[in-house]
Amino acid sequence: MRKHFLAFVSLLILVSMVLTACGGKATEAPATEAPTQESGYRHIKVGMVTDMGGIDDKSFNATSWKGVERAIQELGIEGSYLESQQQTDYATNITQYINQKVDLIITVGFLLADDTAAAAKEHPDINFAIVDFAYDPPIDNVRGLTFSIDQAGFLAGYVAAAATKTGKVATFGGINIPPVAAFMVGFESGVNYYNEKHGTSVEVLGWNTAENNGVFVGNFESTDDGRRTAEEFMSEGADVIMPVAGPVGLGSAEAVKQHGDAWIIGVDTDWTVSASEYKDIILTSVLKNMDVAVFDTIKMVASPDFEGFHGETYVGTLENGGVGIAPVAAGAVSDDVLKELEDVKAGIISGEIDTGWSSYLASLSN
């Protein structure tokens, strides 16, 4: 098992990858269909299998589903989803779509990797895509959708270090897996880079890359855990918190809102939009544009020229717009810091600035 994981980890040195997770009976959305808006695309059936956070998690699954909804509207495809309430639903939901003879099955999340691989190998005539995973070796009929989220996390860490009044910021995760850790490694590196440039000593609570040690609540659904963890961080002096745990983070946002004098950093999507009830305490959000990757994948399959994925992997970066950060709250940092942020972004894209992710992955393989 460790050998398999390390093989995967070695691939991730070149790419980067939060997911969400929850428990009960799988629920299918009504298939939705719209008149074709773009000519030349085939009418195909697409099924999406969520991770356990559910379709309305305001984060990982919801953002991926937006890509399917866009394809329904713009390409006229037929799309539906099945919600996973527990891990045993993954294979069941995938099988249901196989039996429906859909043209493309999209699975959402690192934890669906094994079930997706098994199904794809058994049914090479069906196209699959998986969010936040890349297979090594590649599977011919699977497209991996991965994201260099450490790059965006680095920018958020830089902003957090500039915004803190207490000199302490914090991050925590749902489960310690690569797509979650990537946010946290990047965040810590961004804080450290700000310290280096400004001669400050902002402290990061909840994660230490050098020790591969951090705070993880063990799930992606308990808002109570999110609230409790945020309260603990604030009691230690943190006034900026980035929860990397899907819906758990909404509990943290509520704690910050009630506490006051602190900021929350959203993940996956712009929380000022998806969780607008907390917009006044959102410093920024780390964007993983899964909807764009999902839409582009569907568009590939719907093209009359499509001849298969051939095991390719998509990597979303700052350069191609696959990842990024949402606008920073007005007045939270100076205009000079905002200008610096553009320089930092350019440095990451050029490779001049190291986010720390590759080194972290290399340390895991030792």
Unreliable sequence segments: 1-26
Mean pLDDT: 91
The total tally of domains equals: 2
Outline: globular
- Neighbour order of strands in the largest sheet: 2-1-3-4-5-13
CATH class of the largest domain, anyone?
A: Alpha Beta
Main sheet makeup: 6 strands, parallel
Query: Gyration radius, to the nearest Å?
Result: 20 Å
| Second rung of CATH, namely the architecture of the largest domain | 3-Layer(aba) Sandwich
The CATH homologous superfamily of the largest domain corresponds to Response regulator
Structure commentary:
Helix content is 41%, strand content 17%. By secondary structure, it is α/β, with parallel strands linked by helices. The strands form three sheets. Strands 2-1-3-4-5-13 form a six-stranded parallel sheet, with helices on both faces. It has a six-stranded mixed sheet with strand order 7-6-10-11-12-14, sandwiched between helices. Strands 8-9 form a two-stranded antiparallel sheet. The longest helix has 21 residues, at 178-198. The model is unreliable at 1-26 (pLDDT under 50).
